[in-house]
Amino acid sequence: MIPARNTERMPRGITPRRPSRAGRQDRIGRGIAPATKQPKVDKKIHKKPSPPSADGGARATRASQDYNPLAPERIAEILKRLDQLYPHVTCALTHSSAWQLLVATILSAQSTDVNVNRVTPELFRKYPTVEAFAGLTPEQLEPQVRSTGFFRNKSKSVVGAAKKIVTDFGGKVPDNLQDLLTLPGVARKTANVVLGTWFKKADGIVVDTHVHRISRRLELTRENDPQKIELDLMKIIPRDKWILFSHQIIWHGRKLCYARKPRCVDCPLETLCHAADKTWSTVDVHKTAQ
What we know:
The protein is mainly α. The protein has 12 helices and no strands.
């Protein structure tokens, strides 16, 4: 017997469910949502920050107001750590006389000490005395100092200084600031190098590119002019430390406190330095320290 046909119609718009070909029934339509991918659970433990104390903000403000980069205790601690780091450093320019040091310092402008030390041994072998340099023309000296850069101006300065030393100072390099500054190519930095390193006279502080940069990073000055920086440093650094301090800062600039990527993580002065361009810091940084 043929069963009676089901004449009951489905409401319009509704399609009857059909068995799945895979043998599983689709759960959609029975109020059961399809399985969704569970988000990954971060297993890291994040500690909730402890609530600030009632007077925490006030203490931070007072600490900021009380901070004095030129405080004698801070300066003393900087000098102490520099002494521990660089106890017996001196000028890196190779020389055996005041004249050789003067020539090497003039040649070192806009150059490196390593480069100058490659040039000067042969130069001093060929011209062993200040009189020998005085007998040259700048054009004769130029090829031998070309690799130090700005060789035309440097040649004029070296030959001019030699002639003046021979004619005005009996062939001896002056041992005072006033006379040294009369020599061609000699400004305060060069004069301070010769006076401090050779004559052991502390008439000023050498301010080269390293001293300029690091003094600003340590907030020992806010000046950009080398002479103004020198005056600022002379006010806060004890005079008996002037010569060694400049050598220490110069060595620090070569070893750790680079211009672009200072090695702050290895620096013993790190906890005293708030420079804005530090690469790693355990203390607050100051926008003005750069």
